[in-house]
Amino acid sequence: xxxxxxxxxxxxxxxxxxxxxxxxxxxxxxxxxxxxxxxxxxxxxxxxxxxxxxxxxxxxxxxxxxxxxxxxxxxxxxxxxxxxxxxxxxxxxxxxxxxxxxxxxxxxxxxxxxxxxxxxxxxxxxxxxxxxxxxxxxxxxxxxxxxxxxxxxxxxxxxxxxxxxxxxxxxxxxxxxxxxxxxxxxxxxxxxxxxxxxxxxxxxxxxxxxxxxxxxxxxxxxxxxxxxxxxxxxxxxxxxxxxxxxxxxxxxxxxxxxxxxxxxxxxxxxxxxxxxxxxxxxxxxxxxxxxxxxxxxxxxxxxxxxxxxxxxxxxxxxxxxxxxxxxxxxxxxxxxxxxxxxxxxxxxxxxxxxx
Amino acid sequence: xxxxxxxxxxxxxxxxxxxxxxxxxxxxxxxxxxxxxxxxxxxxxxxxxxxxxxxxxxxxxxxxxxxxxxxxxxxxxxxxxxxxxxxxxxxxxxxxxxxxxxxxxxxxxxxxxxxxxxxxxxxxxxxxxxxxxxxxxxxxxxxxxxxxxxxxxxxxxxxxxxxxxxxxxxxxxxxxxxxxxxxxxxxxxxxxxxxxxxxxxxxxxxxxxxxxxxxxxxxxxxxxxxxxxxxxxxxxxxxx
Lengths: 355, 240
What we know:
By secondary structure, chain A is mainly alpha-helical. In chain A, 75% of the residues lie in helices and 1% in strands.
């Protein structure tokens, strides 16, 4: 049963298996295990980014396509929901419709970019995606009448998903059963389903062809596979998944803005999460996104605690000052890339093979 | 049905600014092994790559099975029935041996009967069936590379130096497998530097020099005439 769910793609490492189970259980029980607004925000962000990073890995890790337009697709999904909600009666229909339209727009744009540029060299494709993504980001911030410009848009999501909606009047186990909780479980379950769908895709015959293309595209062509067609489909699929992740994020935050869904910083985060987790494995996306978001959220507080604890030691408190958290984040990246060149998942699987 | 599966007429091709094929005329008979011979660097591999469409024929016509395929995409040529085993083998090392084999069957499935025949020809592939292809030895990779071409029936096989750099024991395995392919009625165009292998397998031979075919005829005729070999292929010939 489990094997069918994960499409026969076993973790192939005990440590990795335990890690993945811990992430899954942690996210599934986050509202109860880690009560509090901040931890729930973090858990939801992890869910969304696992999908987003996995969809990016579908292109980068499985097909060998370097794209810088992934936040654009993410943003299309988010703005799709925002615009639909803005223009229609409050309810679930505009949310679903917006998500579908956003995904469709992402697919069409991905198809156009792919058709124009996948025949050429990888670096040229990367440049085109960069240019298109920048153009869209500028467009979104300029069309302030439609998109709210730099201020973004606040979403009137269905009442059932807001804190104002009460399922139970009294908290159970210290947790309020309200719309926010429902919203979290919506984000969690949709993310899980999307992740499993992508796992299915990469372990299908289609996914094998993608891997073959990544390794030797001429060889795949010589066997009889139309490489451009496969690359185009992979790009579109990846874009659709990213857009759906964006829709979820908009629904969760009840807000969209250029900084939260379109910025180039997010693009860099996605790249780092993919590389740290391990390219070419869906599980790498899950591990990379979880660790990265956790570090982003908690490194600063952790350093604050450490700085206080080491207050009597010379130099260390100054180094561990919470304001320097970005410095330490950078150090962590360098170390992780140095020690895990194949990513955390790649490293764990290697140690099994050699051990 | 004509008795020629592949014809090249005045084919010219370039690699970057170098004019490699200077007008190749070649006819590959159906159901036989044609050896493409010649010194290093005369354009044998380039000829195969041009037939496969990796390089564009600047001039001339490539006819396959009664069709003009000069302008077809590589994948279309493959689906018409040309199987290509390149010199560098081109196996997918991140995938398992099994996945490599299944991919090689464009129909998406590898028939059990076909798989057993491949196991019989190349026993190591059975042993390493679920291993990553990247972990195979050089000889085993070459076996996989040829086995991949045998995953489905192809009308024509282009095989580039299958014995290059292999130990003698593995060479004989390779020759036996190619002979089986040949006995099954396959049409093969085979580039080979090892003259003993060429003599053992070839029905016909075409010798290239300087981007052209300079001699073609029966393999036995070439094998029996040391003077002709000397004149056509010079010193690079091995294992006379």
